[in-house]
Amino acid sequence: xxxxxTIKDIELFKKIKRARDVLGFSFLLDITCVDNLNxxxxxxxxxxxxxxxxxxxxxxxxxxxxxxxxxxxGVESISxxxxxxxxxxxxxxxxxxxxxxxxxxxKRLLNHNEFIGHPLRKDYEITKxxxxxxxxxxxxEMKPLLDERQLDMNEDTLMxxxxxxxxxxxxxxxxxxxxxxxxxIVAATCEIGYLHRxxxxxxxxxxxxxxIPYTDRLNYCSAIxxxxxxxxxxxxxxxxxLPDRGIFIRVIVGELSRVIDHLVCLAAGLLDMGGQTxxxxxFNPRNDAYDFLSKLTGARLTNSYMRxxxxxxxxxxxxxxxxxxxxxxxxxxxxxxxxMLVGNRIYNDRITDVxxxxxxxxxxxxxxxxxxxxxxVPYDLRFSNPxxxxxxxDFDMVVGxxxxxxxxxxxxxxxxxxSMKIIKQAMSRIPNGDINIDDRTIITPSKECVYGGIxxxxxxxxxxxxxVKVPEGEHYGAYEAAxxxxxxxxxxxxxxxxxxxKVRPPSFYHMSAYPKIIENYQVAxxxxxxxxxxxxxxxxxx
Amino acid sequence: xxxxxxxxxxxxxxxxxxxxxxxxxxxxxxxxxVFGTACCAIEFMATAASxxxxxxxxxxxxxxxxxxxxxxxxxxxxxxxQAPILKxxxxxxxxxxxxxxxxxxxxxxxxxxxxTTLQGIDEIVPVDVYVAGCPPRPExxxxxxxxxxxxxxxxxxxxxxxxxxxxxxxxx
Lengths: 542, 172
Fold this sequence. Notes:
The complex is a heterodimer of chains A (542) and B (172). By secondary structure, chain A is of the alpha+beta class. Chain A has two domains: 4-101, NADH:ubiquinone oxidoreductase Nqo5 subunit (Beta Polymerase, domain 2), CATH 3.30.460.80; 199-541, Cytochrome-c3 Hydrogenase, chain B. Chain A has helices at 12-21, 85-96, 139-148, 199-203, 208-216, 223-238, 244-272, 276-297, 319-341, 345-351, 359-365, 369-374, 381-384, 405-429, 447-452, 454-465, 506-517, 523-533, 537-541; strands at 4-7, 27-35, 47-54, 61-68, 75-76, 100-101, 158-163, 175-181, 184-191, 306-307, 310-311, 473-481, 484-492, 500-504. In chain A, helix 14 packs parallel to helix 18 (523-533). Chain B is of the alpha/beta class and 172 residues long. Chain B has one domain: 3-Layer(aba) Sandwich (Rossmann fold). The mean pLDDT of chain B is 85. The interface between A and B is large, with 50 and 39 residues.
């Protein structure tokens, strides 16, 4: 369980400012809220806000709890301290109705503008859908931006252009409203939430193992990594660790997922650029990797391979040669693609020095993963807080220099090679033995036990009906996923169903920076910037 | 040439109906507009890529403007927020047009039975083919295209379709 410090709502701003300036917690990971309506403690206030901060050395995490009795009274906004707080607070307002004083633009973020009520409150019924009839025009956000820049909308030189959400390069779900001066973007704003699927509300209605398929669909390009991140967080709460073989399988399939994720990102990014041959070169080995995964797990994309306390089954006979074959093909695809890119004047001129993000900016925006490393910040959870024996593997952290589109793409190319290095080492080191922990209150017994004895049958029954009982408390678990730090904040009331689950999705924070970093670049550059940030709508909107 | 000698034309001319000829031509030249939002869109990318290659079935001319397309492929979850946009896209497509709901979410809402997810796109637009799967394999998406082609074969009529359909957003 994570250590959480409770602070008063009036001293919140001062405390967090002190944490940032004096204690060195320069990184705001996430803000969320817990609705205590269904809790049995008599003295709990209705809402609790949770602020998760990370130290600039990346080792320590600091969590503050702020008790809020009345949502309309709310708390002071910290968006002036961290850029990442702006969207995080808007989301809390949208989902819980908590007011943040002095917030520059406190309006709904994920739900549509005709929505009434706040869906993550415990008294909001999960199935109560609300029709939306029109889209908002976003001029309420654009107007202040234009005023700030002393631009007049009625001038002939200025044109307002809407990109998306149904646009081939906007991944289907991202809407950008840009003010253009010629081809140059002078102001931009974004609307997200088109793929908001109610992940967090669904979690409160399913037991822990039933949530695994929902996690698949957060970042659907690397589903297994989401499985692992969630299962690992719950295992940390239970205080259990997997046997070594289970850990090595997680490392192997996790790193393979990272390779697949980067392949999709680069293939799509290069396709947006007009480099269609690269798309074939990178997409075909990805299909080979999916053949391996479907042989192993039965599904191509949404694998649901992990369980709390282990995984569904062991690797199959002959997996080594299949996986080696996949790695060879991926390697060939990367080599062929790079042959066309390295030294290619068109490619380099197109993306060098486009939308650079400095290290300080990237931290303030809440960047993690390849996008943060591209800006030259050496932060990777596999190095700073190693888990699953990552400290014993021989691999390098790939770090960029200026954080432009070129760096963001090239960091991903190199990270695939590092991941393949890890897979090869793990393949040679994987021990024999159990893959799951030996605990009948967590892992379902084998079918022979279930059908062959009353005890096994009861274990199975209890696990299916009640779910894995997780001790009461709150925990924030983080995992280095393909896009960055994927965190789960879980609040348990001791039952088999979580009281609250909050995902800390890397793409959400990357997206919040997007309208700011595309400013002063052309529309065509913005498309490539979006591709290089690798926004996955599933985890951004949840 | 003596045109009264009709047997000379027998091998060069086929007598048929105009409807049937147009539908026959349309069959192998469906132009899809992919309304991809989520996981299914990633599988659609695989369907279009070289391994599965949807162009083998004459549906590879992916249009990014609905005004150029006659087949709407909805691949992914549609939320209530997204619904008016889906409706707008559908209305912009010229007749005759067909619609495929790819995957569990587009067909029924899938396991997202909650406050934000539309419980099937057939509440908004008429659907011709539903594809099962979460997400469906690329073969299943190709099969949906073939299914549309089979439907075209069965009813070679040249008329407006779905005139009696009434979606939830049609009157607002």
